[in-house]
Design a protein that fits this description.
Number of strands: 0
Shape: flat
Largest sheet: none
Length: 365
């Protein structure tokens, strides 16, 4: 089975939507005539005849209930809804005017019709195959839910068993706790007894220590008296010794003062000698500086002269070297020249001998 055509579906949805819109519009229409609303409509430039006719017909229907009157009310209501849909200013005037809350029955009707519209739209938009698939999906979800509930029951049973085991374990632990508390009480009792014994021993030890302390205090008191008497005797003896030492100190002070005066006089003489020596040293040091500057200049002059002598010696050596080079060159030239002269003379002599030999041979013939 195919689903409805798009045009048919849109027509059905349009009818349902138009019905909801009309009901929504009617919720803003007062049940009785409202002069304030009429004045606002006139100020907005809207015709008030439609709403006035609606109120008149409703009043007439309330007074005389007849089919003709009901038919007129229906026609007037359709005309009012059409006018509100076509005239936005007219509709906004109703929206802006405070009215009483609609009846609960009307609101409930609008809610049910809205849900019916949504359901119809969902139904009209599905085929039988899609509905079957949806039903199968719902069955699957139901089966899963049932399985989950079964698992929940099983888990609850397991939880009960675990709780029971936990309670048993807790009971066992409580028994152990009671035993431990009893043992702790026994231990505390024994500890208190031992503490009492220790306190008695400590008290006895303290009593003995106090007795020993009293004996030691008496001995120390006697020792203190003896030492006090000895201190007084030693003080008297030491006072005499101190007087003698004080006199010796005064005598030594006088001697030290004389020695210091003598030392000061000697130091004054030495200071005078040091000043004179220092003045002489300053004078000699000044002369030393002057002589040092003088000899420094002489040394610089001597170094300059030595440097010039070295330069002159180098120049002379270079001149001697050049002269020696010229001399050696002249010697070599003379050697070469003399060699050439000697070779020429020897050559001339050889030629002369050859000529003489030739002439001699010719005469013999």
């Amino acid at each position: 089975m195919n689903k409805l055509t798009s045009v048919e579906s849109q027509r059905v949805m349009s009818v349902l939507g138009d019905m909801l819109d009309r009901l929504s519009f009617l919720t803003y229409v007062p049940v009785k005539a409202d002069s304030r609303l009429l004045s606002q409509l006139r100020e907005s430039g809207c015709a008030t005849s439609v709403i006035e006719t609606q109120w008149q017909l409703e009043d007439a229907c309330a007074k005389a209930d007849s089919d003709d009157t009901w038919h007129k009310v229906k026609v007037a209501t359709r005309s009012l809804c059409r006018h509100m849909r076509e005239n936005p200013v007219f509709l906004n005037t109703f929206f802006g005017t405070p009215t009483k809350e609609p009846a609960d029955d009307l609101l409930q009707l609008i809610k049910f019709l809205s849900e019916l519209t949504d359901l119809s739209f969902a139904k009209l938009g599905k085929t039988v195959e899609e509905e079957t698939a949806h039903q199968e999906l719902m069955d699957t979800i139901y089966n899963r839910r049932k399985q989950a509930e079964d698992e929940l029951v099983s888990l609850r049973d397991k939880l009960s068993e675990l709780r029971k085991a936990k309670e048993d374990e807790t009971s066992h632990l409580d028994i152990q706790l009671q035993k431990l508390k009893a043992e702790l009480s026994t231990i505390n009792k024994n500890a208190n007894n031992e503490l009492a014994m220790i306190q008695a021993q400590v008290k006895e030890t303290l009593d003995k220590a106090f007795e020993k302390q009293n004996i030691d205090m008496q001995a120390l008191t006697e020792r203190h008296l003896q030492l006090t008497r000895k201190l007084e005797a030693d003080t008297t003896e030491h006072r005499d010794v101190e007087d003698g030492l004080r006199k010796a100190k005064c005598k030594s002070g006088v001697e030290v003062a004389g020695t210091i005066e003598k030392y000061d006089a000697e130091m004054t003489v030495l200071a005078t000698e040091i000043d004179s020596i220092q003045a002489q040293y300053t004078q000699e040091l000044k002369e030393l500086h002057e002589l040092s500057e003088h000899f420094k200049k002489i040394d610089e002059e001597q170094r300059r002269i030595d440097a010039e002598e070295k330069v002159l010696e180098a120049v002379r050596a270079e001149e001697r070297r050049q002269v020696q080079v010229l001399h050696d060159a002249a010697t070599k030239i003379q050697k070469v020249f003399r060699g050439n002269v000697v070779r020429k003379e020897l050559a001339a002599k050889k030629k002369g001998k050859k000529g003489a030999k030739g002439k001699g041979k010719g005469k013999k013939k």
